[in-house]
Amino acid sequence: MRLWTLVLLVGCTNLQTFAQKNKETLTPVSKTTLIVLGTAQDAGSPQINCTKVCCQAIFEGKQGAAPAVALGIIDPVNKEQFLFEATPDITLQLRVLKNSAPLEVSEIPTAIFLTHAHIGHYTGLMYLGKEVMNAQQVPVYVYPKMQVFLEKNGPWSQLVTNKNIVLKTMQANKLQQLNSQLSVFPFQVPHRDEFSETVGYQINGPEKSALFIPDIDKWEKWKTSIIDVIQKVDYAFIDATFFSGKEIQARDISEIPHPFVIESMKLFKGLSPTEKAKIHFIHMNHTNPLLKPKSSESKQVEALGFNIARTGDRFTL
Q1: Is the Cβ–Cβ distance between 176 and 201 less than 8 Å?
Q2: Which of 27, 85, 259, 314 lies 20 to 30 A from 251 at CA?
Q3: Burial track 160-169 (b if 16+ CB lie within 10 A, e otherwise)
Q4: Could you give the CA distance from residue 109 to residue 90 in angstroms, rounded to a whole number?
Q5: Of the candidates 2, 129, 114, 131, the residue with the CA atom closest to the CA atom of residue 68
């Protein structure tokens, strides 16, 4: 069997295994629930052309693949579900979400919320087009610059023209009321904004709320205090692209200024155990040892009172 065929099969098999396991072992939610659908950085894990130890075990079928970062929200009261990020893994991520929802909830998301125009966060929209689903007017919530990017550049513009998607422009710091159970508060964060703004979200359910910032530059570049924001929510899913600078060898680290996990933990060390427990590190590069639950780094993070998001985790909102 050729290597590229083996890699494709390994990746697909691991995702399909998760989807099947989800269907067999998880009962449909009865309350508004957030489900982690992916935890990896844009390219997922394994990553193309990677010859490092971090990916070899996956290529060889000894370890499961990690889908790109995404969250799903199920509202059983209104029989709706929402997707945060449209990743290249959207096909199986939507099936996993459907398997966790009551039967009446459609697999087609009620709406999709995008953070920015980096490949792992929006390119799954292509599967809504006429070559695949040929979806009908799926609302996609974006900031103004992202809207222009999708409208003016193919193949995304075809989705708009064919009304596979309907772009919903959000205003900064203005609450979006989705239904009787859910609202979303969007805000802009500093990041590499080549094609669009970068947005974070506070997702509010009937009882609890969740922060979602999968991509941001160093915390000190944001005019808002991340500690203040964490204290206002019940869960915080925040950027953990790199555990430390040791992972970066082939690129200029100044070009990818994410907050290292070790820096975030230092910043948050003064928080109470209750506040630390809110934090769930997410959006991990394929080199990040936190992708491996049994790594010494994962154990270190958990010993300090923080959490690491794992695909399939559920949180009641």
Answers
A1: no
A2: 85
A3: beeebbebee
A4: 11
A5: 114
Q: Name the burial class of residue 33, with classes exposed (0-12), middle (13-18) and buried (19+) by CB atoms within 10 angstroms of its CB.
A: buried
Q: Which two tokens stand for residue 102?
A: 């009551």
Tokens read off for 292: 């491996």
Number of CB atoms found within 10 A of residue 7's CB: 18
Tallying the residues shown for the chain, one arrives at: 317
Q: How many CB atoms lie within 10 A of CB 62?
A: 9
The reported pTM is: 0.89
List per-residue pLDDT tens for the chain, 317 residues long. 343 333 344 444 445 555 555 554 568 999 999 999 999 987 765 666 756 766 566 666 666 767 999 999 999 999 999 999 999 999 999 999 999 999 999 999 999 999 999 999 999 999 999 999 999 999 999 999 999 999 999 999 999 999 999 999 999 999 999 999 999 999 999 988 899 999 999 999 999 999 999 999 999 999 999 999 999 999 999 999 999 877 676 555 556 688 999 999 999 999 999 999 999 999 998 789 999 999 999 999 999 999 999 999 999 99
Q: List, as own/partner pairs, every contact residues 301-307 make where C-beta atoms lie below 8 angstroms and the sequence separation is at least 24, other chains included.
A: 301/261, 301/265, 304/265, 304/269, 304/276, 305/273, 305/276, 305/277, 306/265, 306/268, 306/276, 306/277, 306/279, 306/280, 306/281, 307/277, 307/279, 307/280, 307/281
Non-local CB neighbours of 131 within 8 Å, separated by 6+ positions: none
